[in-house]
Amino acid sequence: MSQEIISAIEQCRGMLLGYLNGIPDARAAEQPAGQVNHPAWTLGHLLLVENSVVHMLSGKAPVDLPANWSELYGMGSKPVSTRSIYQPLEFYVTKLAATRVGMVAAVKALKAEDFAKPFPDEKLRSFLPTIGRAVLFAGLVHEGYHAGQIASWRKAAGLPSIGM
User: Fold this and answer.
1) Each residue's pLDDT tens digit in the chain (164 positions)?
2) Which of 7, 43, 88, 132 is the most buried (most CB within 10 A)?
3) 73 membership: H or E segment, kind and range
């Protein structure tokens, strides 16, 4: 089962990365036509979530993030169009690769029965009741949702669509 999960989250990540093709770094914080969640914020947010889930599963965060990361990208944060606030796109892509290595390692380390165990963070347990649900949410549901936002952003920004 874990290999199926890994394959699915890798497919979703490929889709996300595909949507980044051709986005000029200088435009990554634009908010055209009401598209509030621009690529720079979206990637930082995905990085925060996956890094946190891997940390809870394995006890070690795959990447060190600056102290203000949650403030910039966490729940309730507000993306702004000031490009200098955000990292270059390549920074996010590199860090997301590292968190994905951590996620894959964490999933491979799980036994089948571990997927049904309660998620370690009690504050999130009502939303993510089990370890399996947290892995699927972070790697598929959440990432796929935000990948779709980047696809919509591309259209609003006048960039060509990317077929998947």
Assistant:
1) 689 999 999 999 999 999 999 999 999 999 999 889 999 999 999 999 999 999 999 999 999 999 999 999 999 999 999 999 999 999 999 999 999 999 999 999 999 999 999 998 899 899 999 999 999 999 999 999 999 999 999 999 999 988 76
2) 43
3) helix 69-73
Quote the crossing angle between the two packed helices 2-20 and 39-58, to the nearest 10°.
160
**Is 2-156 in CATH node 1.20.120.450?**
yes
Other Cβ atoms within 10 Å of 32 Cβ, number: 15
Do residues 164 and 30 touch, judged by C-beta distance below 8 A? no
Q: Quick one: residue 63, left, alpha or beta (phi over 0 = left, psi -120 to 50 = alpha)?
A: beta
Could you give the CA distance from residue 139 to residue 92 in angstroms, rounded to a whole number? 16
Q: pTM score, two decimals?
A: 0.94
Which residues is 74 bridged to in the sheet?
none
Give the residue extent of every domain in the chain.
2-156
